[in-house]
Amino acid sequence: MRDHEPxxxxxxxxxxxxxxxxxxxxxxxxxxLRDLFGPPPGIFVIDERTQYQTRKEVRQLALxxxxxxxxxxxxxxLLALKPEPLHFSFxxxxxxxxxxxxxxxxxxxxxxxxxxxxxxxxLPRMGIRLCGLAYEAGLPMAIxxxxxxxxxxxxxxxxxPPSPVxxxxxxxxxxLITYIPRRFERPGTLxxxxxxxxxxxxxxxxxxxxxxxxxxxxxxxxLVCVIDGLERLENNKTRPYLYMLLNRLRALSTGRRxxxxxxxxxxxxxxxxKLNHEEHLSNIFA
Length: 286
Fold this sequence. Notes:
Number of strands: 7
Oligomer: single chain
CATH superfamily: P-loop containing nucleotide triphosphate hydrolases
Structural class: alpha/beta
Radius of gyration: 18 Å
CATH class: Alpha Beta
């Protein structure tokens, strides 16, 4: 996994304009973006009088999560960059552009109520393509998808299948570590005692959310985040933790440019209660 240095919000927003236009034109803008913007400048100031932690140290601690989390299939980049049209309605295309280019943070829920297998495949591919393009351009991104999710319970190194909600939060943590500074003031939540709490159980989600909060505070102020299939995680036991996740994302998006996309193949009680009506696209297919 390659290193990323922080990018200012203004440069990231301009870059994302080119990403979307490149996607719409069915071409790969990544090389052009790297040439156009060059190495992103640092935005964090190091005070030599404080105690520090390093990205390398946090990555080493996060290795213990590798048997508890689900990474996207290896064909992520192929799906992201493949010039295959995604058949959405004209209104949906316009809302995606607004989601990307609007000032400040923007949450969006794309709901596809369909029994058409081809259309159902379009939902995760939409998020994969957006995040794949952001990754290729060197922009901060994080993605979780239930699409192609393996049976984690079949892994011999795990005694019980990890909670899917823990899987979700751990996956975001693992990806966001890539974008924190190489050296930063020690926050107290990215240490061994906290990582020891991440055992794959639903009870571990709360300390994991504390760690996620710290990471979101340390990454650059621009983020593309896609969560696909949230409705498949919902039940009476998991909803309180999913509400907590939405609350954290909403609170930390203030004053930043966080582009958060949820895609579901049916209704979601959590999203219905936590997102505004204007943030909900319920008829996304052409």
